[in-house]
Design brief:
The complex is a heterodimer of chains A (235) and B (270). With 235 residues, chain A is an alpha/beta fold. Chain A is 36% helix and 26% strand. The chains are: A alpha/beta (235), B mainly alpha (270).
């Protein structure tokens, strides 16, 4: 029997701002879900709750513990003085993916090579460009073979070559059976890389639909539909 | 516990590689050395081979450095989003907090011990009074001071999302507990009835981390400053076995309270 994650009635408030307002949906094992919506729609809050970083004020999240999950945040500051290799080795050990320091360094070294950062392994991660930091975070997420991958705007800051590479990696992970939830501002990426598309606005799910419905059509159709959905709600 | 040790090792290596341990050791050593001439002139005082000026300095410097480093380190992680990512990597937020705290404490302790050792060696060459046990007492006082103030620094770092606010808060707290608290206490205590004086003094001293450190390190030969006849009673008590145990409990409470509050704050932030 395949595993499932069931979210129901998730709400989160930051001061006076209601970031999530009773969000509920189900994710089946192996499914890929794209979260789209304007800034402040609640995408990051939802991913942070799934990633175990934030606790919801109310609501239930069931089945999450059955998955070995990894989280890619949207842009963070790395500690000054720490090389990419030492930080990644630390992350590998904290995750429990490596038992000793040597094993962690070897694992981290391979992960950096696979993300094209091998030549920068001993450079200070804090001084990396935005795209390189994003790749480092992606490397961190891949260590330990995640079954559930949570990514908050993972392609932001990537150059065109690595954007293509990232899409291919995501496809490979999906083909390998990983469950993926990611947020993006690119409607074409969202529909092309996911099975389901969740449109959020004002902390609520406006639309939960098969991504196939967003593919094809004429150029700009998807964007027009996206805007009309938000506009209709605003009206 | 294993993850706490990994986090401690990483934090220690960060402070070591960034040259912080070396710089702090050099500062401790340099400041102690500047006080050596006066120590040589007036001889050793009540605190043992090391003069009370050096003893005071170690307590002040160790507390200041540890509260600032801990506050900045914890706030930097919160500010940059790294703390959230690390917490997503492993369960047990309290264990990671403890590990980071222990790493900072280890770095500050190593710096204090190295700085004092250099000073002790220099004093020995200059034939100034001071034995290995004096050095050990002073080093232990520095470690106790770092243990207490790192915990308070961790609390300020967890409370504030900005490094500037955390450092400002830690600095104000250090200044208040080291200087202002004592002045306020001595202004208020004489107004109390004589019968209540002894208990009030005990409570007054126990509540402040700096005074608790002075009390708690009495058995180490630390700053059992002469605070009048009532304090003499407590000083004698802290030299007995129950007193040593009470001192350890007092210092532990001053470490556990801020760390517990920091863990609670991180939990609530989630």
């Amino acid at each position: 029997m395949s595993r499932r994650i069931r979210a129901s009635g998730l709400s989160k408030r930051y001061g006076t701002l209601l970031a999530l307002d009773g969000v509920g949906f189900e994710v089946a094992e192996g499914q890929s879900i794209a979260l789209i919506g304007p800034n402040g729609a609640g995408k990051s809050s939802l991913l942070r709750i799934f990633g175990g970083i934030t606790r919801p004020d109310s609501g239930l999240l069931e089945g999450l513990a059955d998955f070995r999950s990894s989280y890619v945040p949207d842009g963070i500051e790395f500690p000054r003085g720490s090389s990419a290799l030492s930080w990644l080795a630390f992350a590998a050990r904290i995750k429990g993916a490596a038992t000793g320091r040597r094993e962690a360094l070897s694992l981290a070294s391979r992960a950096l090579e696979s993300l094209g950062l091998g030549a920068h392994a001993h450079r200070e991660a804090a001084l990396f460009s935005r795209g390189m930091k994003q790749r480092l975070l992606f490397a961190q997420a891949l260590i330990g073979g995640p079954e559930l991958l949570l990514m908050d705007e993972p392609a932001s800051g990537l150059d065109p070559v690595w954007t293509i590479e990232w899409k291919q990696r995501l496809g490979a992970l999906k083909a390998g059976g990983a469950t993926i939830i990611f947020s993006t501002h690119r409607i074409d990426d969202a529909s092309a890389l996911s099975d389901r598309l969740l449109l959020l606005d004002g902390g609520k799910i406006l639309l939960d639909e098969d991504s196939a419905a967003w593919r094809g059509g004429e150029e700009g159709d998807a964007e027009r539909r996206f805007l009309s959905l938000l506009g209709r709600r605003a009206a | 516990m294993k993850r706490s040790i990994i986090a401690a090792g990483y934090e220690f290596s960060q402070l070591l590689h960034r040259g912080w341990v070396l710089a702090s050791a050099a500062a401790t050593s340099l400041l102690c050395l500047t006080l050596e001439p006066s120590r040589a002139a007036i001889g050793s005082m009540a605190t043992g081979g090391f003069g009370s000026s050096i003893s005071n300095l170690v307590l002040l410097l160790s507390a200041l450095a540890s509260s600032l480093v801990a506050a900045l380190s914890f706030a930097a992680d919160e500010e940059g989003g790294m703390a959230a990512l690390i917490r997503s990597l492993a369960p047990g937020k309290g264990g990671l907090l403890l590990g980071k705290y222990l790493g900072i404490l280890a770095a500050i302790s190593a710096a204090a011990v190295a700085g004092l050792a250099f000073d002790a060696a220099a004093a020995r060459i200059a034939a100034i009074a001071g034995s290995a046990s004096d050095f050990a007492r002073l080093a232990l006082t520095a470690i106790a001071s770092a243990a207490v103030y790192s915990a308070w620094g961790a609390l300020f770092g967890s409370l504030c999302r900005s490094q500037l606010s955390a450092a400002g808060g830690a600095l104000a707290f250090w200044f208040f507990t080291m200087f202002l608290y004592e002045a306020i206490g001595w202004a208020l205590l004489p107004a109390l009835p004589y019968r209540a004086a002894k208990s009030a003094l005990a409570l007054f001293l126990a509540l402040d981390p700096a005074e608790a450190l002075r009390l708690g390190s009495t058995f180490l030969g630390g700053q059992g400053a002469a605070l009048g006849p009532d304090f003499y009673y407590w000083q004698r008590f802290f030299l007995s076995l129950p007193g040593v145990l009470a001192a350890l409990a007092l210092l532990s409470a001053h470490i556990a309270l801020p760390l517990g509050l920091a863990a609670g704050r991180i939990g609530r932030r989630a």
